[in-house]
TrEMBL record:
It comes from the Bacteria. This is Tryptophan synthase beta chain. Belongs to the TrpB family. It comes from Micromonospora deserti. The modification N6-(pyridoxal phosphate)lysine is found at residue 88. GO terms for cellular component: cytoplasm. The beta subunit is responsible for the synthesis of L-tryptophan from indole and L-serine. The gene is trpB. Coiled coil: none annotated. Residues 55-372 form the Tryptophan synthase beta chain-like PALP domain. It holds the Pfam family PALP. Pathway: Amino-acid biosynthesis; L-tryptophan biosynthesis; L-tryptophan from chorismate: step 5/5.
Length: 385
């Protein structure tokens, strides 16, 4: 998981499949990022913001009661405790700082569960930037709390009524909008998707999760590294950031997708949103709509680096149903006093299933990135429980 070069290639995946009008804009972002990342001034400002505003490092929590029930040693990397309630803010803080450095005055973003939109609105307010967030109408209905939070923070939320009215359509709309606004606006992508340099840059900003967890595991575990590293995968940013910290170790990497949005587990190679990757497609190569109770996993594809890790066999991608995720959420809440986001509960559900099936050997150490907290999901949960 290194620098994918100027072409942004991860094996046969990645690249920059964008209209002529966005080629220069993507190049400008790449140049700015390459410069900033080796500038100690930029790195210092980012580190300071992450510490004093976002609350990093987030803790590594051993969950004793659930571990005892499952016969394993489960540790949670607590991104739910980061400011605004998910890992999204790590990436947004990096990109917003970059946008300021580039002299841009407005952030454009897409959002699914609303966590990326809230993070964007938050950091925009902090740095004195404007924010315009595109969100599918269906997600606006099921994530009302986050829509309110974004507006509260001064962001403009633009409803997207096309297609499945979820994340895929919001992403298309945001990219289209950026075409006419590259002069003063920066497109702040929320996951490891989109054209080069986004998948690489977003993974680099999220790598803080894996790097912190690696150090925390070194002091917490006698073996130093966990046997398994598990994270949920929508586009794949919390997983990519986590995996990056462990890819050079013996840990087995497992990405958990929603059954109805399993780009890495069930998809085929294709091009969408500016990159070649794995997407759910029908027999004619048309993208199939994703369906998941978790708005943040309701995406038909996966970032190109995950496609590459899958092909290499370095990471494995598995799926979990809506029902399994909801019952895992309740179980974690009632054994540990932690209400995870429904997205994160997918990772918990796989661990519960795999431990029960003997697929995780008894006593195995498992690091699981808990990508966010469940406050945003109360209305969905009220319908489900
Ligand atoms: C957005 C989101 C996800 C999915 O996004 P990734 O890019 O796959 O990490 C997962 N969990 C939460 C809480 C989210 O907000």
């Amino acid at each position: 998981m290194s620098d994918p070069g100027r072409q942004g290639r991860f094996g046969e995946y990645g690249g920059g499949y964008v209209p002529e009008s966005l080629v220069a804009a993507c190049r400008e972002v790449e140049e700015a990022f390459r410069e900033a990342w080796v500038d100690p001034g930029f790195r210092g400002s980012l580190a300071r913001l992450l510490a004093v505003h976002i609350g990093r490092p987030t803790p590594l929590t051993p969950v004793r009661r659930l571990s005892a029930e499952l016969g394993i040693n489960l540790l949670l990397k607590r991104e739910d405790l980061a400011h605004t309630g998910s890992h999204k803010i790590n990436n947004v803080t990096g990109q917003a700082l970059l946008a300021s450095r580039m002299g841009k005055t407005r952030l454009i973003a897409e959002t699914g569960a609303g966590q990326h939109g809230v993070a964007t609105a938050t950091v925009a307010a902090l740095l004195g930037l404007k924010a315009t967030v595109f969100m599918g109408e269906r997600d606006i209905e099921r994530q009302a709390l986050n829509v309110f939070r974004m507006r509260m923070l001064g962001a403009e939320v633009i409803p997207v009524g096309t297609g499945s009215r979820t994340l895929k359509d919001a992403t298309s709309q945001a990219m289209r909008h950026w075409v006419g606004a590259t002069e003063d606006s920066y497109y702040c992508v929320g996951s490891v998707i989109g054209p080069h340099p986004y998948p690489w840059m977003v993974r680099t900003f999220q790598r803080v999760i894996g790097d912190e967890a690696r150090g925390q595991c070194a002091s917490e575990l006698s073996t130093g590294v966990p046997d398994y590293v598990v994270a949920c995968v929508g586009g794949g940013s919390n997983a990519a950031g986590t995996f990056a910290g462990f890819v050079d170790t013996s840990a087995r990497l497992v990405g958990v997708e929603a059954e109805g949005g399993a780009g890495a587990a069930l998809g085929r190679a294709g091009v969408l949103h500016g990159a070649r990757s794995l997407f759910l497609q029908d027999g004619h190569g048309q993208i199939v709509e994703a369906h998941s109770v978790a708005a943040g996993l309701d995406y038909p594809g996966v970032g190109p680096e995950h496609a590459y890790l899958r092909d290499l066999g370095r990471a494995r991608y598995v799926t979990v149903t809506d029902d399994e995720a909801i019952s895992a959420l309740v179980r974690l809440a009632r054994t540990e006093g932690i209400v995870p986001a429904i997205e994160s509960a997918h990772a918990v559900a796989w661990v519960i299933r795999a431990a029960g099936a003997g697929e995780l050997p008894s006593g195995a150490t498992v690091l699981l990135t808990l990508s966010g907290r469940g406050d945003k999901d109360v209305s969905t949960l009220k319908e489900q429980l």
